[in-house]
Design brief:
The structure is a single chain. The chain has 10 helices and 10 strands. It has 336 residues and is α/β, with parallel strands linked by helices. Helix 6 packs parallel to helix 7. The chain is rod-shaped and about 115 Å long.
Length: 336
């Protein structure tokens, strides 16, 4: 329990003062009864018949006053609330091979079309972030439910250099961790990390409502190992859905003055997705790709939040005041 205006809790000092005044008045009343009772001013037998019951309304009144003072300080309570939500990180391969034209007009443009359809079909309670990777990874948009902003980010993507699937996965995981309010476990470019490198400090949370949608041709020529990065995602509860962009027949293209042959590596993309409990889809197959929109439904999760409970305290205080007044009227015919 915490209070937004905690300084107002000093008003609770009034309560022991009122308690002292009450006992003092009761003591004075008792002394008067003892002094003048024989003169008939006070009916001692009637007073004794009431007994300790006469104190109950007054104590309920003091409890009610305490609760109302606490409500003025605006109390907050940590409550675990069920929420239907999800976080999706669209992770784009922007390596030079994505300029191949075995998917028309190019693999990059085909990936944008697939991502655009995906974004447009997501409900408003799904937050979508964008990560781009080539030989390094970069989070270019934090998770948001602003679809226009997400689509504008996607349209700006262009092919660049080499390919590091592992980098893309790790930067996507880092984006999920930061979005959940946890400290980041990656800093700087990790393309030079050994194949087996995974940050030990990353194993700090569990994010089952978050998924990564990886759009790539699957060709990997940079560290770290994408399968090891996928294992880390599985440890964090994050599923990876891979979308194969390209064809197994491949295509020849020029990258930075060199003629290279590039083809879709379905085996690697399948390993990455299956290791995390996700699925692999082919962008060339519209019926197959449409399944991803059904598979990525928001998940029901528990979120701990600080909820202001001022109204509950105020209501309880007023109810106690009514109880104290009702008992006093019922037993003594007056309000204390």
């Amino acid at each position: 329990m915490s209070f937004i205006w905690s300084s107002l809790l000093y008003l609770l000092l009034i309560v022991p003062l009122l308690l002292w005044l009450y006992f003092r008045s009761q003591r004075q009343r008792h002394d008067l009864a003892a002094r003048y009772g024989s003169m008939g001013v006070v009916n001692a037998s009637a007073q004794n018949s009431v007994g300790g019951r006469r104190h109950i309304p007054a104590f309920i009144f003091l409890v009610a006053l305490t609760v109302l003072i606490m409500s003025v300080a605006r109390p907050q309570a940590e409550v675990s609330l069920p929420k239907l939500e999800g976080t999706v990180i669209l992770t784009f391969d922007v390596s030079g091979s994505m300029a191949a034209d075995d998917l028309k007009p190019t693999r990059m443009e085909a990936a944008k079309v697939a991502a655009t359809e995906f974004v447009n079909k997501q409900p408003s309670n799904v937050l979508i972030g964008v990560v781009a990777f080539s030989d390094g990874g970069l989070s270019i948009q934090p998770p948001t439910n602003d679809k226009t902003q997400t689509l504008e980010t996607i349209y700006r993507l262009v092919p660049r250099r080499g390919t590091s699937l592992g980098n893309g996965i790790l930067v996507s995981l880092n984006t999920i961790v930061v979005s959940a309010g946890d400290p980041p476990f990656l800093s700087g470019n990790i393309a030079s990390a050994p194949d087996s490198a995974t940050p030990d400090s990353a194993l700090q949370g569990w994010y089952p409502s978050a998924v990564i949608v990886l759009l790539s041709d699957g060709e990997n020529n940079q560290n770290p190992d994408p399968v090891a990065a996928a294992d880390l995602a599985a440890d964090l509860g994050v599923r990876i859905y891979t979308i194969g962009i390209g064809s197994t027949q491949g295509a020849t293209l020029e990258v930075e003055g060199f003629t290279v042959f590039s083809q879709l590596d379905e085996e690697l993309l399948q390993s990455v997705s299956y290791n995390t409990g996700g699925q692999y889809y082919k962008a060339a197959n519209e019926a197959d790709l449409a399944r991803i929109y059904r598979d990525l439904e928001p998940k029901l999760s528990l979120k701990t939040e600080n909820i202001e409970v001022t109204s509950l305290f105020a209501g309880a205080g007023l109810l106690l005041f009514l109880v104290a007044g009702a008992l006093s009227l019922l037993w003594f015919g007056r309000v204390p």
